Amino acid sequence: MVGVQDPIVTSACAGVAQTLGGKAWKCVRGAFIHLIAFALPPRCPGCGAIVADDHLFCLGCWGTLDMLGGPACAVCAEPLGAMAHYEARCGACLAEPPPFTTARAAVAYGPIARALALKLKYRRRTGLAVTMARLMRRRVGAIDDMLVMPVPLHRRRLWGRGFNQSALIARALVRTSGGSVAVDALVRRKATPVLRGLGPTGRARAVAGAFAIAPGWADRLKGRRILLIDDVYTTGATVSGCARLLKRAGAGEIHVLCWARVVRNGDEER
Length: 270
Description:
Distance between the termini: 26 Å
Low-confidence stretches: none
Largest sheet: 5 strands, parallel
Number of strands: 9
Shape: globular
Strand content: 15-25%
Helix content: 25-40%
Strand order of the largest sheet: 1-7-6-2-3
Mean pLDDT: 86
Structural class: alpha/beta
Number of helices: 10
C-alpha cells in the first residue's frame, strides 16, 4: 500500500519543504500531493488493488475480513453462540481466569489478516500499523487515561527486524485516540519459542521469566489502567505473561488489544 501518507512519501515531502522554505512550500504543497497521488495511488492493504484513499480495502478483501464484535466471552472475546449473555464467559476463562481484565481483537485470523501481519513484520510495510490501529480502535472505549504498552520483542529479534510491530501499532493508536504510549516499560529478557502447538503447561513454561519491568517504571505503573497491544492473539500465553507481571507491579485494569486472534470453531481453527 503506497499513497500520500506512506512513510517514504512523507519523508520526501519533508525534504522538499526544508529545501523550499515555509512560504514556497505552502504554494506548491497541494500540487505536489496531487502529483504524488497520481503517480503512487493508494492501494488495498490486502491485495494491492487501487482504492479511493489510504488504509481502505478493496471490496473483495473487505468482504473476506472476519470482523469480530458479536456475542463473545466477556473476558477473552472468544466468539460464543448467538444467544450468549453479554457477561457470559467461555469454558477456558471459567476454568482458569486469565490475568487480564479483557482481551479484544479487530478481526479473526484469516488469509487477509495474516497477510497484513506478515507484510508489517517481514516486508517492512510499516504504514500497515496505521491501517490495523484504525480497525482496532473500534474494539475499545475511551483510552485517554490509559497507558498504551506494546508487547516487547527480544533484543535479537528487534535488532534483526529493526522495529517492534506492536510498538508501531501502539503509537498509531495513541496519535488518533489519546492515551500515553510506553514502548519501553516492558522488556523481553529471553527469546521464546513458537507457542502454537504447545499445551497449557508448555506455554506457561515457555513464557515464564521471559518479561520484566524496565528500570524506573515500577512505581509509575501502580494503579494505572493498561492497554496492552499485540499483533496476533493465538494462545494468549504471551499477553498473559505480560499481564501477570504488570499485576504484580501494582497496575490496575489490564486490557489487551490485538489486530487479529485465532478463533476456534469446535476443534478446528478458522
